Amino acid sequence: MSLATTVDSGHPSAPPADDALPARLGLALEDFLRERPHAELAPELAEEVRALVLGGGKRVRPTFAWWGWRAAGGAPRGQAAETALRALVALELLQACALVHDDVMDRSTTRRGRPAAHRAFATRHRRARWAGDSRHYGDCAAILVGDLALAWADDALVGAGLDPAALRRAWRPWQAMRTEMMAGQHLDLVATARREESLEETLRVARFKTAAYTVERPLHLGAALADAPAALVEALRAFGRDVGVAFQLRDDLLGVFGDVAVTGKPVGDDLREGKRTPLVATALGLARAAGRERDVRLLRDCLGGPIDEETVARVRALLVELGAVAAIEERIGALTARGLQALEGVAVEPVARERLVRLAAEATARKY
Q1: Where are the residues of the annotated region Disordered (predicted)?
Q2: What domains are there in the chain, each with its CATH number?
Q3: Which helix (DSSP H) or strand (DSSP E) does residue 46 occupy?
């Protein structure tokens, strides 16, 4: 059964095309993954990509891209819409690449309620009593899983069936997004190595590591597919930059205070991993300004290496006491408001405008 006949049949009981977006994206992903040529050459890698992509996630990136498409007048149903959906599969595969590599870099143990790829491959190596170091094997295999997901992301965009003009338009934000994502990962790595404490620099990491490829460029990609005018593209990108950073700030708070059922990762992992986030940078700035040297030392010790559960609890309490959590909440609100303001004064398809406002709220709202 085709994607179109499954969710776009026009039957009175069928949900509206936009409301059926999660199901439509899921079917498009399944169709793409089912048809991968040469997957049998590396079945364990291919299966890990499939398990990660189909095993959860909120489809944030293709959802923003879809509303970029709709904002520029893209049709909610029909052949053009189905082709656009096939192209947007690329964003979930790009995200899979980022997640697998990020988990290796952060030494994360779980992802979406299952062992992270590097841990799963390390366990397989150890149980089979293969030669060499299990951890090294797991890291190497996970890198290849991420690389395969990235290669398939390109395949998804190029093979979606876009007409040549649409593919040329989409290729520019796609090129920028891939490079910005890698640059953001590197900025994050450098920030940790340099023991970065600057709020400005940690916000720059958030801008490129998350905002660009989570909200800004997906909106740009969707709008490009629909041949949006330059003014609308710029407005959507401005919206995406601010909402994307706010999204990352919310994620930082969830990484310290969130529910594992929401995040899919153990609470406090960002602290245990010494992540250089705007939240911690804000707390350091507040502690220094107040002359609280003991608290400055505690925060720096937290960032310096593995910490125990008692220290995690102390740092969590300190982040609240210093006012860092309140400051980040205020910044999230200001960024979200500024992002919404960017949509004013430009022609946005009315249904898309309403959905973008809703998505901004969902991406940045309090969840702990």
Answers
A1: 1-20
A2: 16-364 (1.10.600.10)
A3: helix 43-54
In this prediction, residue 10 carries a pLDDT of: 42
Alpha carbons within 13 A on the beta-carbon side of 342? 23
Residue type at 283?
A
198 C-beta neighbours (distance < 10 Å), count: 15
Q: How far apart are CA 348 and CA 164, in angstroms?
A: 25
- What pLDDT score was predicted for residue 195? 86
The 8-class DSSP code of residue 110 comes to E
The pLDDT of residue 6 is above 50: no
Residue 274 pLDDT > 90: no
Phi and psi at residue 347, to the nearest 5°: -80, 105
Q: Long-range contact list for 200-206, CB < 8 A, 24+ apart?
A: 201/276, 201/281, 202/276, 202/277, 202/278, 202/280, 202/281, 203/245, 203/278, 205/276, 206/245, 206/248, 206/249, 206/252, 206/277, 206/278
- pLDDT (0 to 100) of residue 9: 40
Of the chain, the percentage scoring pLDDT greater than 90 comes to: 76
111 phi and psi angles, rounded to 5 deg? -150, 120
Query: CA end-to-end span of the chain, whole Å?
Result: 41
Residue 217's contacts (CB-CB under 8 Å, 6 or more residues apart) are 173, 174, 176, 177, 180, 240
Cβ atoms 248, 209 nearer than 8 A: yes
What lies within 8 Å, CB to CB, of 254 at 6+ separation is 262, 263, 367, 368
